[in-house]
Write a structure and sequence with these properties.
Blueprint lengths: L2 E5 L4 H13 L4 E4 L7 H4 L11 E4 L2 E4 L1 H11 L21 H16 L14 H11 L5 H6 L1 H18 L15 H14 L14 H20 L8 H9 L6 H4 L3 H6 L7 E6 L8 E8 L3 E8 L2 E8 L3 E5 L5
Parallel strand pairs: 1-2, 4-8
Antiparallel strand pairs: 1-3, 3-4, 5-6, 5-9, 6-7, 7-8
Helix pairs in contact: 1-3, 1-8, 4-8
Length: about 325
């Protein structure tokens, strides 16, 4: 089954997903896209207007948001078939706390922790085109002076949040949820602080005297990923045109796997076959992807979309995404 990653250099969430694919040991190909719009490889060829990167195609199913992608990879490439797992067993007894790990990764690492980091970038040196693009992404003009002024506060909050990691590791555990191997929780926090480590002016945050356990943990996760990278072939890069043709010629996941929960749909004022627009609740809200609602459960929406390369099924998480009725095409 083909697996295609759409990503760009410098995208922290692309790094997160690349790490997940490493851990899962899933062969894949990748398409390098622009860090700014337009991205015809996605919007025109696939018919997906989703603004954020990365996205991942498994067969003809296109998955958006790393939280849902992680769940889909775990389901479609299970450890029982020889793949790695994002939810290893606890070190001392019992299965992993999968629900809690997912909630931790989404609600804390992605939603609370990560948003503190971008202000530490050198916004005053960014091009006008980049500022304009990211303003459209946010849905409001970016105030560069305000971002620069917020750096001290956000650096302090990153320190405060790192103290929670330090507290969690204080009992000498190797990984955050005391699992046999690092879990999604470790990778969800690691990619944020690893990204921040590359910025200027953040040296005081990574103080060994203040966060000895956390810094050792960061190094352990980095080393673990490094070993996996050495043991696996580098993913080949293909063009957006070739990727679209590959995806279009691959099979869909059966509708029944996700199913259609009519009770959940009714709560949302939706029904199967509705023409809907799906978009994130936080940023990029103005970039809804429009298609026919074909599957829905408590975890995801699935819509059929049409691009120049063919018809695809696009999957979005239920958490922090909204599907609403859209005007049907004439």
């Amino acid at each position: 089954m083909s697996v295609v990653l759409y990503r760009y250099d410098g995208s922290p969430f692309s790094v997160k997903l690349e790490n997940i694919l490493l851990v899962k040991q899933i062969p894949h190909q990748r398409v390098n896209v622009s860090s700014m719009l337009p991205r015809a490889e996605i919007t025109e060829l696939l018919g997906v207007n989703y603004r954020r990167i990365p996205i991942l195609a498994i067969g003809s199913d296109i998955y958006c948001d790393t939280s849902l992608i992680a769940s889909a990879l775990e389901r479609r490439f299970p450890s029982a078939q020889g793949y790695g797992t994002l939810f290893p067993r606890k070190k001392h007894a019992g299965d992993a706390d999968t629900g809690l790990v997912k909630a931790f990764a989404k609600y804390w690492a992605d939603t609370v922790l990560f948003p503190l980091a971008p202000s530490l970038l050198s916004w005053e040196k960014m091009s006008a085109a980049f500022i304009k693009d990211r303003s459209a992404f946010r849905g409001a003009p970016i105030n560069v002076e305000a971002l620069v002024a917020s750096r001290g506060k956000n650096l302090s909050l990153l320190s405060t949040n790192l103290s929670l990691v330090e507290e969690q590791l204080a009992d000498g555990r190797e990984w955050l949820f005391d699992t046999e191997l690092p879990s999604l929780a470790d990778f969800a926090v690691h990619f944020v602080y690893r990204w921040v480590q590359g910025f200027r002016g953040v040296e005081s945050l990574f103080d060994p005297a203040t966060f000895p356990n956390s810094l050792k943990w960061l190094s352990r996760v980095t080393a673990h990923l490094g070993r996996l990278k050495l043991s696996q072939a580098a993913p080949p890069t293909i063009s957006g045109t070739d990727a679209a043709a590959l995806i279009a010629g691959s099979p869909f996941e059966p509708y029944a796997v996700v199913g259609f929960d009519t009770r959940e749909a009714a709560r949302l004022g939706l029904k199967a076959g509705d023409h809907v627009s799906v978009a994130p609740d936080d940023n990029a809200r103005n970039f809804g992807t429009v298609g026919k609602l074909v599957a829905l459960n408590r975890e995801e929406f699935v819509i059929e979309v049409v691009g120049k390369a063919g018809t695809f099924r696009c999957h979005f998480p239920r958490i922090m995404f909204t599907a609403k009725l859209a005007k049907a095409k004439l």
